[in-house]
Amino acid sequence: MFTQNDLRQFQAKGIDLKVIEQQIENFKTGFPFVELTDAASVNNGIKTFTETEAEKLLHFYDKNYDDYEILKFVPASGAASRMFKTLFEFREKNTSVSETDKLLNADKGFNSVYNFITNIRKFAFFEDLKSVMAANDLDIEACLVQKDYNSIIDYLLNDNGLGYAALPKALLKFHRYDDGARMAMEEHLVEGANYGQNSDGRVSVHFTVSPEHADRFIEEINKVKDKYEELFDVTYELTFSIQKSSTDTIAVDSKNKPFRNEDESIVFRPGGHGALIENLNDREGEIIFIKNIDNIVPDRLKEHTYQYKRIIGGYLIELRDKIFEYLELLEAGNLRDNEVKKILNFAREKLCIHPPADYEEMTAIEKIDFLFNKLNRPIRICGMVKNEGEPGGGPFWIRNTEGEVSLQIVESSQIDLNNAPQKEIFSKSTHFNPVDLVCYVRDYNGEQFDLREFVDPTTGFISSKSKDGRELKAQELPGLWNGAMADWITIFVEVPIITFNPVKTVNDLLRKEHQPE
Are 217 and 341 in a shared domain? Predict the structure, then answer.
């Protein structure tokens, strides 16, 4: 199946032949659906805190955070092009100014375009757009009066203007302030200074970036870094990484044969956000906060985010301390039955770890080994918000192929919705995953875990794509907060809905949460 040129291509990308062969086999067999046993809900896998408990954890974090190396990890390599999908579609159909009203009135799908145009002055990028158009002898106000919406859209999206369609979300201006507008990545610098400081006033922030945007990203962040260092009296330690080519996956045709370019080279595709487990694994942090680039708010609403980041951070430290205490006891051995039962109760009640059906039949040593292995894993606390109709993953109890039941974040594509009982469980979901995580990635001896050892490889995903007019099948790796963290200690905590304000379309920036008061 593979030529010498193919093997050289694999070697250049850093991909082992056995990995390629397994990916081909995945295309042939497909990935199994997960088996849901229940939807996680409050008091059934999702922890809530009373006001008193939350306040206690917040102060606990503030008192103890400087004992740890803190890192803010921001997946920021996604392109912004999907934010402007409707604008692209409108622009393609709208061939002249005279057609504008007719098109907007005839196609209700373009209501969002009308909303965009009529509220254009409310966007943080308006002044930049106005300036770039003026530099090309176009008055944006005149264009609005004349209904020349094409020019406005072109100068927003294309390279002769702001070029927003080709930029990552991180470099788009999201919010307006009296002293100017901020890009999305600037808001993460502000957040980091408020809950991610290390004891020496250092704020470590890591951004994943795409190769084509890396230079521009670093250039833009260096322009604003000093401003926030002075504002918050901190020093930023900024690092960047790109998705490794070794995490790309092979594409195949309908017969599961390698999909080839005209020059006979094999087509590879990015492995999805699950590939970022490699980037995360390379980081030196101890406590790592993970949050998507577009889930941010202006300063006036950030206090809720700061509070809950510190609350779940405090809960992480509290659990970590108890886990390490028990690991040291388990490693020493010679535990009495009541001590083993105490550790089991902690694992079950605090960490949602269910012992296997034959646990009571195990010998004392086997019970100690089981508990040690279950406690000696990376820890993640995942904020969960009440489901208000947002698409995406949610918290569920699942049973794996070995019969173990655990908490997992599951996407709808992983569920067999043609199976009535599974569909019923899915429909009972009450909460949604906003990608709001705090993680502990060192073991009780202070050594970094190899995070790649805790991935469930059976949770990938196959999709249909096209290239050069030909259909192909693509494969995504287990998602970063799905299968890539499947074997972590997982705790779900309910967080306020105000902490979840993603920007998926450009008009999301018109929501009151993204506007000045």
Answer: yes
Q: Which residues contact 255 (CB under 8 A, 6 or more apart)?
A: none
Strands annotated E in 163-300? 173-177, 180-183, 202-208, 235-241, 249-250, 268-269, 287-291
Euclidean distance between CA atoms 102 and 79, whole angstroms: 31
Same domain, 360 and 427: yes
User: Given this model, what pLDDT does residue 392 score?
Assistant: 67
- Which helix (H) or strand (E) element contains residue 64? helix 51-64
Q: Say yes or no: 20 and 118 in one domain.
A: no
Query: Are 55 and 98 members of one domain?
Result: no
Residue 105 is predicted with a pLDDT of 75
Could you say which of 166, 201, 231 is where a domain stops? Answer: 166
At 171-182, the pLDDT tens digits run: 999 999 999 999
Q: Are residues 214 and 108 in the same domain?
A: no
> DSSP string spanning 90-143?
HHHH--SGGGHHHHHHH-GGGHHHHHHHHTGGGSTTHHHHHHHHHTTT--HHHH
Q: Specify the pairing of strand 235-241 against strand 45-47.
A: unpaired
Q: Are residues 330 and 362 in the same domain?
A: yes
86-116 pLDDT tens trace = 999 988 887 777 777 777 776 666 788 989 9
Q: What is the pLDDT of residue 3?
A: 93
> CA–CA distance from 11 to each of 6, 239, 427 (Å)?
9, 27, 45
Last residue of a domain, one of 112, 145, 166: 166
What CATH number should be reported for the domain holding residue 33? Answer: 3.90.550.10
CA angle 354, 357, 362 (to 5 degrees): 100
Q: For residue 408, name the pLDDT band (cuts at 50, 70, 90).
A: very high
Average pLDDT over residues 376-392: 88
Does 220 lie in the same domain as 93? no
Please provide the average confidence, as pLDDT, over all residues in the chain.
94
Please state the φ and ψ torsions of residue 272, each to the nearest 5 degrees. 85, 180
Which residue range is the domain that position 143 belongs to? Answer: 82-166
DSSP reduced 3-state for 494: strand
pLDDT, one tens digit per residue, over 470-496 is 999 999 999 999 999 999 999 999 999
Residue 418, pLDDT score:
95
